[in-house]
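Name: DNAJ heat shock N-terminal domain-containing protein
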Amino acid sequence: MPEHIFVPDINLARLEEEERIAIKILGEIARIREILLSKKESPDMCVDKEKVLKVSWDKIGEDYTCQRLRELFSNFGVVEYVIMSSKKKRYALVEMSSKDDAAKAASCVLGNLLIVHLQPSPFSNTSANN
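Structure predicted for DNAJ heat shock N-terminal domain-containing protein:
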């Protein structure tokens, strides 16, 4: 009597493995979407533009790095973020921890840096009636 040998169907095994992988990927996509949606609704993701300063400088003179800008602006308060453009543009965005710290920094002269608020306070005196 012939002995029956089990021979697995390779195509069926491949399909089952692909299905397992697809289920894992779909689960991971759903998890990532949940994370992104929760961040969009988070108030931490909103940037208060009154705390952000646009800093620019001339080609002549000192060339600044993120670390150097952080050091300079930390004299006015806590620096949350420094985001630099490419070297050719020579500007950066500096986010301070408070509006008061940003106002202090914007009112000072630091070498060849031009410092302006990304968005001025609606309560600042911008009228020409003075």
